Amino acid sequence: MKKAFIALLISVLLIPNVFAGTFDDVVSSDENYVAIEYLVSIGTLQGYSDGIFQPDTTINRAELMKVLVAGQGISPDENTYKDCYSDVASDWYAKYVCYATEQGWVGGYPDGTFKPAQTVNKVEALKMLVNALGLGSKLPETVSEDLFDDTDNSAWYAPYLYVAKDLNLLEVTDRDYGPSSDMNRGGVAEYIFRTLVVNELLIDSYTAEYRDQFLTDKGLSSLIETPVLYDVDYVVDGDTIRLTDGQYVRLLGIDTPETDECYYDEAKAYLEGLIGDNQVELVADEINDDKDAYDRLLRYIYVNDELVNLTMVEDGYAEYYDSYDITLADDFDNAEGEASLSGLGLWTACFDNTSAEVVDGLYISYVLYDGDVPDVESDEYVEITNGSVADIDLTDYYIMGSSGDEKFTFSDYTLASGEAVKVYTNQGDISFGVNKAIWSNSGETVYLYGPENVLVDSFIY
């Protein structure tokens, strides 16, 4: 494979605002850290202008088509490559989609559509990447072995999955692959990096040892150096520890009960259990201060690659502390919402979730999850209906999905009796205000919460 192609591929895959260096949202404990950092180091990786990479952001079919085609320096004639599907006419992505289709890299659906705005799942992305990365010659005619417990060796994707598994391009450590799961940007970067290692070293399968050899040969062994680990003297409370060198560390992003408050003992004991006798890795957040007003280090704490701060929130032993900005704010906010909804830990022990006034008759009446606006689907919406006999003040009510991607909170809005309101993705006066599709076409649960995080209704589609 040509290295120039890989460089072009990555430069097209990512947003064209150059960010040279570590991304704020990619830390050394992240599973795609080495892949992303290597591609940054050779000058082919780009991120957003605010210094983030968004490794967990999904890729839709139109975006990946541009990667495959423009990544090879090909600029198809837009007058020639168009109208190849009923939903691909002369839009910006038409020339890429139609060209890739002609090359046999991708196909459409039986109804004659391409669904350009639909998120690419793992096996769809795998087929496209195997074809584009020059691995098509390795495809077997049939696959006789069972690859994973949740995959079908007679399915169309089986040969592509076989090649990727055989070369160890996949980030899978158990017997399930999740073929229908969405593909994200970090995963694409990982596939490309592992393919680079396999092709350059002329090896049969990617391994960590070959990765280390590859990076050492490139003079980038710093990417695989063992992180500094610290011994913990004792746990002060649920959000603070003391190291054996005398430094105190305040866990970023969380807040736990103080002495004599509800769940103080439980939170402290849980943190002690998470740390145990292990050493800890400390990671700073580039958008936050190094220390707080009490001279405590502000850090994420990792134990064997587990982010302890987030686990405390996920399991209901800590609240998300949103009084300052952190890079992983969305993760912590979503974790708190799920823990509260499930009544975990302190959310049942310390909060009376029946105290908030929630009016009966308010419900989610409809979710338009597959909009007509190409790519961004700004016309998607969630419809809330007031079926009660009284007007309802929706101030501080909020909507979010089970994927936790976005959250909309009503501000100073009253819904009249018998009326409905549509909250759009990015259209009109009442919207999430985001320039991307929010609701998964493969289905999820949409939640409506009232004041004090009381669940009012849910809608499964």
What's the helix and strand layout?
Elements: H1 3-13, H2 33-41, H3 61-70, H4 94-102, H5 122-132, H6 158-166, H7 185-201, H8 208-217, E1 229-230, E2 232-237, E3 240-243, E4 248-251, E5 254-255, H9 264-275, E6 280-283, E7 297-303, E8 306-307, H10 308-314, E9 319-320, H11 329-342, H12 346-349, E10 362-368, E11 381-386, E12 392-393, E13 398-401, E14 407-409, E15 414-415, E16 420-424, E17 445-449, E18 455-460
Parallel strand pairs: 4-7
Antiparallel strand pairs: 1-6, 2-3, 3-4, 5-9, 6-7, 7-8, 10-11, 11-16, 12-15, 13-14, 13-17, 17-18
Structure description:
Residues 1-8, 10-21 and 353-358 have low confidence and may be disordered. Strand 3 (240-243) and strand 4 form a beta hairpin. The two termini are 43 Å apart. The strands form five sheets. Strands 1, 2, 3, 4, 6, 7 and 8 form a seven-stranded mixed sheet that branches. The chain folds into three domains: 3-224, no CATH class; 229-349, OB fold (Dihydrolipoamide Acetyltransferase, E2P) (Beta Barrel); 362-460, Sandwich (Immunoglobulin-like), CATH 2.60.40. By secondary structure, the protein is an alpha+beta fold. The chain is globular. Helix 1 packs antiparallel against helix 3, helix 2 (33-41) crosses helix 7 and helix 3 (61-70) crosses helix 4 (94-102). It has twelve helices and 18 strands.
